[in-house]
Amino acid sequence: IPWNSYKFLEDLVREVSMRKTGLLARLKTTPTELNEIVVKNNLESVKIKTENIKIECPIHGEFKKRYVDLYEGQWCRQCAHEEMSHSYGKIKEKGEEFGYFLKDDKDIFEEKRKSQKKAPSNTILEYICIEGHKNYKSLHDILTAARDGRYGCKKCYRLSIMVTYEEFQRGVYESGFKTEITKSKFSQIKEHCIKNNMILTHDVYFNITCSEEHIFPAFYVSITSRNGIKCPYCGMSALQKRIHLYMESALKVPFESEVDLRRIISTETRYLKMDGYTEIFLGGRPIKVIFEAMGEQHRFFVEAFHKSLKDFENQKRRDNYLRNECRDAGIILIEFWYDDEVKHYKKLLLEQFYRQTKDLGIFEDGYYLKRIPHYTPRLLHNKFLGAIQNVQKQIKDF
């Protein structure tokens, strides 16, 4: 989770606000203040996420909330209080959203609320889960379990969220994939989870297929997560796969692939796809990093890529244009060429990063990366094979 990314925080506030109030909230913590939080906590995510974030609720005004609490779906206290004051109909409706059907009628609900002397949302009521098991709990218990990624019915399948076969199919489809798993197979997987005390959404790999017919396994929670999941085979050459893996291992951060330059540089108007992009914090400041896997077509005329010499010249102009744009925007651009040996990757990364941080004025004396791993071709290949799933062993051109 990129706790030090201001964009991630903005998107999180927007998402929770819309879910809780149906209105857009305003993030009051500024980029500078977030940067100060990051520096104060020495870039340690475990500390950054415990800091308070300032937000303006569109209904009740400004409030503070711990970063991690916001990530778990919590909002302002007044909104929470109003949520606690739900009517019988609202409590019944909310429970059904999470797969719990209220068995108590309105009279029993009022009787229990008075005898327990609790707010409606905290009153212990009798629910029946989707599998028909009785559960005695409050709406607050149900909502808390859902936010924490837990499923509360002790007698039922241990699912992090309520997933039926239909919901499973819909979740996969809405994420842009498809699956050949049948309903009977899905039921067998559920039974296996019961017997082995496993969580269906987090402990079981499902084979899914992308639009290019690549088949690969993934957890359901990854498929339907906020950030989504990408097919490991789409749009990446063997050279890109190798360099992508190395850069993630070296900088210890995830890189996005096939990123539009217009998303990285807000003033950019041309469409150019970057092989890899991420944002890191060094010396208390955010630094944008792009890497490019430079194939043979970037240096020579190659018929498979160029229809004419004019295409090749355009390729050279695009490469120079990208270098100039990155320099003007203060972005680190790391280039690896098709004929660079894996054993030299560490040296190439260190030299380019140091030179650019100095030339761009990001650090007066440049920045020399530390603890960068050194790989032989075989070590990196083995790491690649174990990085996602065994099916990657089928790739012959790595």
List the helices and strands and how they pair.
Blueprint: H1 6-21, E1 26-27, H2 31-40, H3 45-48, E2 52-57, E3 61-66, H4 67-71, H5 77-84, H6 88-97, E4 100-102, H7 106-116, E5 125-129, E6 134-137, H8 139-147, H9 165-174, H10 183-195, H11 200-203, E7 205-209, E8 215-219, H12 220-223, H13 238-251, E9 259-260, H14 261-264, E10 273-274, E11 276-282, E12 285-294, H15 309-329, E13 332-337, H16 345-359, H17 377-387
Parallel strand pairs: 12-13
Antiparallel strand pairs: 1-2, 2-3, 4-5, 5-6, 7-8, 9-10, 11-12
Which range does the strand content fall in? 15-25%
Subunit arrangement of the protein = single chain
Tell the overall outline: globular
- Return the string of H and E elements: HEHHEEHHHEHEEHHHHEEHHEHEEEHEHH
Distance between the termini: 29 Å
Helix content: 40-55%
**Total count of domains:** 4
Let me know the number of strands: 13
Total count of helical runs of at least 4 residues: 17
Largest β sheet strand count, sense and barrel closure: 3 strands, antiparallel
Q: What do the pLDDT scores average to?
A: 79
- Give the strand line-up of the largest sheet: 1-2-3
Low-confidence stretches: 157-161, 385-398
Rg, Cα atoms, Å: 26 Å
Pairing-aware structural class of the strands and helices? alpha+beta
Brief digest:
This protein has 398 residues and is α+β, with helices and mostly antiparallel strands. It has four domains: 6-76, no CATH class; 85-147, no CATH class; 165-223, no CATH class; 238-387.
Structural account:
This protein has four domains: 6-76, no CATH class; 85-147, no CATH class; 165-223, no CATH class; 238-387. It is globular. Residues 157-161 and 385-398 have low confidence and may be disordered. The chain is α+β, with helices and mostly antiparallel strands and 398 residues long. Helix 13 crosses helix 17 (377-387). The chain has helices spanning 6-21, 31-40, 45-48, 67-71, 77-84, 88-97, 106-116, 139-147, 165-174, 183-195, 200-203, 220-223, 238-251, 261-264, 309-329, 345-359, 377-387, and strands spanning 26-27, 52-57, 61-66, 100-102, 125-129, 134-137, 205-209, 215-219, 259-260, 273-274, 276-282, 285-294, 332-337. It starts with 5 loop residues before the first helix and ends in an 11-residue tail after the last helix. A three-stranded antiparallel sheet has the order 1-2-3. A three-stranded antiparallel sheet has the order 4-5-6.
